[in-house]
Amino acid sequence: MGYSIPRLNPSHALTQNSSFGQTMSNLAKHLLDFHHTKPYLSSILLIGFLVLLLQYSLVVAPILPEKLVAKPKPPTVEEMKVALIMKSYNCKNQEIFQAIMQTFDPVLVATTVALESEFRINAANPSGCRGLMQITSSKLADWRNPTKNIKVGAKYLEEQKLRFKNSEMAIAAYNAGPERVAAYGCVPPFKETQLQIRRTRQIMARAEARLAKNPEAAAKLALELNTPLDLKNNIASNNASN
Description:
Layout: H1 10-15, H2 17-35, H3 39-60, H4 64-68, H5 77-88, H6 94-101, H7 106-117, E1 129-130, E2 135-136, H8 146-164, H9 167-176, H10 178-184, H11 191-213, H12 215-226, H13 229-241
Antiparallel strand pairs: 1-2
Helix pairs in contact: 2-3, 5-7, 5-11, 5-12, 6-8, 7-11, 8-9, 9-10, 9-11, 11-12
């Protein structure tokens, strides 16, 4: 009687890796039970079992870390632009980046944060506006919380864009107030508001130019801001082991 030892397929083993250890453990238990009734046959099966374990340790196990560590997705154009805007203000805060990316228009929101606070979480002015998007404490008590501050500010900015159908008009309404923008029917002729609009164009144009000049660097920057710290550590550990 001949017995063939099954060969282990690495790709199949990889897809089944989550249950592989449990399967081997169960098989070992069954072999021990089988040994009491048919010791000769169980010995042959035990040899096959050991060969499978050997193939696993030599073929599959060495490539598991590389295959199983999740890789971050390539960044979108919006993510790269936001990352570049943040870099202009030396901001590397992942919470700020991820909060901005959850808004209706990340590039417009990032531009507004740059205009209002230059990405300073503790920014405050005498009029009572606070935080990244200069929210009044009456609208948000926890204004130092980046995610909450951006969420509240972005919602208000979105309301202005829906009302005026234009990004620059929305920025003007955010700065000067929607009623003034509505009264003029355009960007009001106030010095500060006009300056905000010019700066808006400059910030967006600079991000666009830097992205076009060096998309690889922009992608790397966005990945660093968008990759959770635990995943960064896993990837770094895997690269070091290889």
